[in-house]
Structures are given as C-alpha cells and as structure tokens.
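User: Last request for today: this protein with 9MR, please.
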Amino acid sequence: MGLGAASVAMGVVPDLVRANERAPGPSLAALARGKGLRFGSAVGAGRAGSLTGTLDDPRYRQILIDECGVLVPENELKWYVLRPDARTFAFERADRIAAFAKAHDIALRGHTLLWHHPKWFPAWLNAYDFGKGPAAARNARALLVDHIDKVVARYPQIDSWDVVNETIDPRDGSIRRTVFSDAMGPEQTLDAAFHAARAAAPKARLVYNDYMGWEAGNEAHRAGVLKLLEGFRKRGTPVDALGVQSHLGTEDPAAAGGLGPPQEKAWRAFIDEATGMGYDLLITEFDVNDQALPADIDVRDAETAAVAKAYLDLMLDYRQTREVLAWGMVDKYSWLQGFTPRKDHLAKRVTLYDDAYRPKPLREAVAGALRSAPARA
Ligand code: 9MR
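Assistant: Here's the final one, the structure of the complex with 9MR:
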C-alpha cells in the first residue's frame, strides 16, 4: 500500500496534511540514520479516554511519518492502561499505535514493562495479596513474568524495550518499594523483569530508563542509578543500555523541576561510568521546559534551542548513544503543559514543532546535533 492509500485508510484528509510546513533538508529520521542512530517520538493512541490524543490528529500523524524512524507509545503499554485486573490484558490502545508504525514502516520501542513505582501501579496491583513466605515470591514472580511474556509476545516488532522504568528514588538513590519487591526482594524483582524480557525477546535492546539529569540536585539520583547498573553487571542481569530520559530544564531552577544549573563535569563522569560498564545509551524522552523563560517567543525558542544543542552535542559525542526520542513533537500535546504551568499562563514551547505544526528552532537544534554527530557503526 502506498503512502497515499495508507493515509486515506487512517482517515487522513490529504489537503489538511499538505498544509504542514516542512523543515528544509533531510528529515530527522534520515539525518539520524546517516549516523547509525535512530530518531523518533512518543505518541498517544487518542480517543476513548483521557490520554494524549496525538494519533487522532492527521497533521500530527504526518509529522511522525515525515520525521520519525521510531515511535514509542507514551502511556499505552503501562500497567495502568494494559491491565484492568490480574487476568485481563487491554491491548487495543497499544495495538493502534503498533498498527500505525507498521503501516508506515516505522520501528517501535516499548515503554515500559515495569514502571517500578507504586504510584503508577494499578490499584488492584498495589492491593494484591501474594500470600506468605516462599509462596509469595513465587506468586509475584509468576504474575510479573506472565505480564512480560504476554506483552512482549504481542508486539514482536518492538526491538527496544524500557524493561524497568524509574525505580530509583531520587531523594536517596534507593530502589523503590512495591508489592513485587516486598514479595521477591528489590534486586530479585528487577532481575526477574530483565531475564523475562530477554527470554521473550532475545534480540531486543533491553533498557533501564530513568530521569536522573545533568542539573545540580540530581547527585543522589545519579549515584543510585550507577549503583543499580553496577549490581546488574555483577549479577549478570541482561541489561543492554541506560535510557537517559532528558527532560531538560533551562538555566532557571524553576524550569528544571527546582533543580540547579547543569553540572557538565559531573554529568560526563556519570555517563563515563555507565558506558565504562559496557552500557549503551539512549535519549528516550527529550524535551526542554521553558517554564521560567521570558514571555517573548524568540527569546524562549533561542534559549531552549541553545540548551538542547549543548546537551545533544555532549550526548551524541558518545558513540554508545544509539537512539534519540522526543517526548512528543507538537507543543500543545506535551505533558509539560499540565505539569508546573508557567506563571504567566502562556503555553509552553517545549517540543520541536509549534501549535501551527511549524518547525521551531528546537527542531533545528536537534537537526544540527544529528548533523555534527560522529557516525557510529
Ligand atoms: O507523558 C506521560 C503522561 O501523559 C502521563 O500522564 C504520565 C503518567 O503515566 O507519564 C508521562 O510520561 C512519563 C514517562 O512515562 C516516564 N518518564 C517521565 C514522563 C513524563 O512524566
């Protein structure tokens, strides 16, 4: 099926789609591919419910088709979406994204098999009674492994998985407690997830994903992640890469979640340690919060682009960096609009395209970083 036919099948109105302003030069997917990298974005399935609706928007879909070599469902593979109860799997929303990716020959990443944080577990799971003693550990493992088996088997096209997400508590670097870790032990839980993922998807890239960042205030978070990565290596846990989410702030602490300015030296030391242990790197959730920048759009766009370019140049200089994914492609759909809004209530400008689907300086910063990145095998 040609692109035109596929677009019609997806309900695209061709005239509307053609209205998108294209950035000059090669697409981000092509620029990345030329360097042995992949560029892509998160996407939400839309309709039926309150999750982000980017797949419902034909102009958004066109940007994904034009720019992305890989997609990742923003929420649709999370337990709270997939698992209404202990027996049922609700694949319909994730299926829609997988079908879209396949129809347009775009690769797919998975996020996430285990967001190991009780806040993001469905209520039934937090309340689950696994029994007592060794039986509890067995039962917990059975539930976790069954989930991973079934989800991974459903999407053989997924070749890169965030197996475990955000298990480190940024306050003290410890592993978060959940019903799984209470029943099985913390390391045992995380190891079980990676072993199950490896068994179910022997060829996929298996990733530990977290939001430790380069801003001051992330010290305990980074240390905790390094300790976790070290433990994986010591125990022979099959983890291929560290997912560095890369929700960047700008110089103002208010835009960096209350954190301080970037600590480039400490950040390089962190990345050196992770790569020194043999881990590859992925930028999994890139965006730049402009929360505390002045109202003036040109000023904001120039500042976010400058922060992005400096950061991406540093990260892409590491040949270990394999993938770059934006956490959404058009400002109005970004999670950051609802998260810590600006004091002046202006819409944030945190992604690569503005609300009229026009490429912004942030898109040019990403393109520039891909252009100057060293090629990797
Ligand atoms: O962008 C996502 C938002 O729509 C969800 O409401 C939220 C909770 O599930 O998760 C957001 O994505 C997060 C990602 O899954 C993990 N890293 C942080 C992201 C931004 O909060």
